[in-house]
Amino acid sequence: MDPRKLAEYLESGCRVDAASGDLIDRKLGLPVKAIVPVHLYGQPADMDSILALADRYRLQVIEDACQAHGAEYHQGQTNLPHGAEYHQGQTNLPHGAEYLRGQTNLSQGAAVAPRGQICLSPPATAPEAPAESGADTPVGGPALPPVHRPKAGQAAWRKAGSLGRAAAFSFYPGKNLGACGEAGAVTTNDPELARKIRMLRDHGQSRKYYHDMEGYNGRLDAIQAGILSVKLKHLPEWNRQRREAAARYRELFRGAGPLAGNGGAPPAGLPLAAPAPPYEPEWTKPIYHVYAIRVPDRDRFMQSMAEAGIATAIHYPVPLHLQKAYERLGYGPGSFPVAERVAPQIVSLPMFPQLTAAQQAQVVAAALAALRPSAAAHA
Ligand SMILES: Cc1ncc(COP(=O)(O)O)c(C=O)c1O
Predict the structure, then answer these.
(1) How far is CA 45 from CA 50, 58, 143, 350, in A?
(2) Distance (Å, whole) CA 289 – CA 41
(3) Would you give the distance in Å from CA 111 to the centre of its chain?
């Protein structure tokens, strides 16, 4: 999730309802209540920026940590564009502690209104309420910084799933921590929310046969729980091995240099001659649930890899906004151009803890061979 795009959306794509104070999506007319950052492929989202926006707009943050068991994020990044810092009361993070968080710049014109509501530009859309001292002071500067960097001594490594109000984990068998069937969990440090979630997963029962709300059956099977408890002990080592394998892929591709037949120039639409390795900012420790690269001619690439006896996969072929299930939201082709450009190029290479250096060398050799004719075709 790109916090700059999120800020743009909150500022321009939403308005404040004068009666309720709710943030409303201008296009859909629906209230906006929460942000769901997905730590995709095991790569933590830029949570400082997202949490700052959530605080500013009074939104809940529910992390999708389904692919990020054990991934870490360096929280409390403080190298701000103007050297500004503010001491913010912590409201939705574990331990209930206060902390220093880097201020994320919002575009000019955004302001915090009385009663905790957000005034968006133009201010006329703000709910009417008596002004409190300093409450309508505009916050932030012209734009979000591209990335935040932690400053030594003021930030801490935190696990994905401990940063928002709640987080969802999947233990689907293929996950870094996988059951032998369907399983999942929610983490939160909010006891009341935990109580409600426990009830929801058990047909809304507060105690046996007393249903306080409608729920469903989302109980974790005891056999799956047993399997997960045993596997959980191995997770840190498995994650370490995945990170090691990712570093090896990076080195092997880097060592390959420019692709033959392309005169050293990048294949069309790609920034590097060799496949671009996944982005790994220094403020994250991703756990590589998936190792995805971008290639110019994916069908051909996958076919060639299959002929070399190497499995590849696509995560994911259709961007969310183009899924049939979300047709009703009215986002057609062109709505999210980056996702649409990347979706046909991404392909996942083998990635699992036991992957050996020799196997990776084979994968990379096959990948480079697969890319050569493709690169020439695009030259
Ligand atoms: C990022 C992400 N979110 C949500 C889910 C859904 O998890 P589950 O199928 O266990 O409900 C998955 C599982 O594939 C996932 O990878």
Answers:
(1) 8, 19, 19, 23
(2) 5
(3) 26
Determine the residue of 36, 62, 67, 177 to mutate for testing ligand 1's pocket, defined as the one with the most ligand atoms within 8 A of the Cβ atom: 67
SS3 56: helix
17-43 pLDDT, tens digit each:
999 889 999 999 999 999 999 999 999
Q: Using CA atoms, how far apart are residues 280 and 312, in angstroms rounded to an integer?
A: 21
Sequence-ordered list of residues with C-beta below 8 angstroms from that of 73, at least 6 positions apart, any chain = 44, 45, 47, 157, 158, 159, 160, 163, 283, 284, 285
Residue given tokens 């008596």 in the structure block: 130
Report CA(168)–ligand 1 centroid distance (Å). 9
- Which pTM was predicted? 0.79
Distance (Å) of CA 108 to CA 16, 85, 140, 258: 17, 18, 7, 44
Segment 86-130, tens digit of pLDDT: 333 323 322 222 222 333 333 322 322 222 222 233 222 333 333
- Ligand 1 atom closest to Cα of 171? 10
40, 62, 170, best to mutate for ligand 1 pocket (most atoms within 8 Å of CB): 170
- What is the amino acid identity at position 97? A
- Residue type, position 75, single letter: Q
Identify the H or E element spanning 61: strand 60-64
Give residue 170 CA to ligand 1 midpoint distance, Å: 5
Percent over 90 (pLDDT), the chain:
68
Q: For residues 365 and 357, what is the distance between their CA atoms, to the nearest angstrom?
A: 12
Q: Which residues line ligand 1 (CB under 6 A)?
A: 38, 64, 66-67, 170, 172, 184
Q: What is the DSSP letter of 243?
A: H
CA-nearest residue for atom 4, ligand 1, is 66
